[in-house]
Amino acid sequence: MYTFLAFGAGLAFLLGLADLLSFYGKKPKKERDVSSNSEAKSVPSKREGLTISILFFSVSLVQMHLYLELSEQLREFPWFAEIHIPVLFLIGPLTYLYFQRLTGAKETKLSGFHFLPAVIAFLILLPFLLRSSESKLRFLKNEDPSDVYSWVLLALLVFATILNLVYPSALLQRVWRWRSNTDEENRKSFSPILWLFSGTLFVIVLFVIAQIFFMPLFLVAASGLTLLVSVIFLIGAYDPGLMDSFQKSSREARYKESRIAGLDVEALLLRLDDLMREKKLYLDEDLTLGNLSKELELSTHQLSEILNSRLQKGFREYLADFRLEEAARILREEPQRSVLSAAYGAGFKSKSAFHKLFQEKYGASPTSFRSSQKN
Fold first, then answer.
1. Mind telling me which residue stretches traverse the membrane in this protein (predicted)?
2. Helices 116-129, 84-102: crossing angle, 10 deg rounding
3. How confident is the model at residue 107 (pLDDT cuts 50, 70, 90)?
4. Where are the domains of the chain?
5. Residues 201/169, Cβ–Cβ less than 8 Å
6. Cβ-proximal residues to 147 (8 Å cutoff; 6+ apart), any chain
7. Within a 10 A sphere around the Cβ of 299, how many other Cβ atoms?
8. Out of 1.20.58.340, 3.40.190.10, 1.10.10.60, 3.30.870.10, which CATH number does the structure's domain 260-374 have?
9. What is the rounded CA–CA span in Å between residue 331 and residue 366?
10. Residue 299 phi, psi dihedral angles, 5° rounding
11. Number of separate helices (H) and strands (E) present in the chain
12. What single-letter DSSP state applies at residue 127?
C-alpha cells in the first residue's frame, strides 16, 4: 500500500516534468491564430506551463513526504522532515491561478497575495528547517514533548489542509454555475472538471478528518491523492483535447457573466416582469429584443444573457409564454371571440405558430382547450 503512495509521488513528478518540457522545450506560440479561418486551438502560455508544472511538483513532494512518514522511513531522511508544509500552502493557490488564466480571467495585483500564507508558513518553519539532522531526528522520535514545533506544525498542517479545501470548493461552485448557464451541447465539456474537483474535495475532507480526528485515515486519504493524480494522467492520455474544450466553453461562460456584471439583475427581472404583466408589452406583435432592451436601458446582449442565465429562456420563448397565457385567458373568459381573434389579440402574428406553441404548452389544441374549460 505504501508503494502506491510512492508511485503517486513519482507520477506527479513526471507529469510536472512533462509539462515543463512541453512548454519550455518548444518555440513560443501565439495563444490564438486570429488570422486563420480555421478553428483556433488554445495553446497554453509559458506562464501557465510553469504554474501547472510547479503544481505537480508540489503534489509530488507532499506525496513523497506522506509516503516516508506513513512507512516510517522519514527518520532515515531527517533533513526532509516537514519540508512539505510550506509547499502544501502552494497547492490551492496554484490550482486557482492556473484555473483563472485557463478560463481567461484578468490577472490582478492581488494575485500574489494568494501565496502569502506559504511565505508566512516558510518563515515560521525556517528555524526548524535550519536545524541539524540530529535535532530533527530527535524531534521525529518525540524525545522532547515540550518542543514548541510539536503544536506549531500541527496547526500549520490543519490550516493548510483547510485552506486547500476552500479553493476547489470555490472552483467547483463556479464551474457548476457555468455549466448550468451553458447550452446542452457544450455542458459535457464541464463534466470531467466537475468530477475532478469533486474528487479533490473528497480527498481533502479525508485529510482534514485524519488530521484532526482519526489519524489512521491518513493512509486512505494519501491513496486517494494518488488516485487523483492517476485519473489526471489517464484523462490526459485518453482525451488530449479535453482541456482545449473546457477552456473554450469556460471562456465563453466567463464572457457571458461579464456582460451582466455590476447589474442589479434581481431588480431588472422585477422591472421586466412589471413591463410584461402591467403594461402588457407582449401584446405588441412587433415587439423586438431591441425595443424591450431600450425600455430597460440595457444592451440587447445584456438582456439576452439575463434571460438565458437566470430564466433559462431565449427572448422568443420568454415572449411566447406571456402570449400563450393571454391567449388561454381569452379562450376561457371571452367565449364570443374566435380562436384566431384570441391568437392575434395575444400578440401572435402567425396562426400556425400559435397552434403549435399552444399544443406544446397545454397539451391540447386551442379549440379543445376552450371546450375543456367549459366542462
1. 6-25, 49-67, 79-99, 111-130, 150-172, 193-214, 220-238
2. 160
3. low
4. 2-256, 260-374
5. yes
6. 139
7. 14
8. 1.10.10.60
9. 8
10. -85, 160
11. 17, 0
12. H
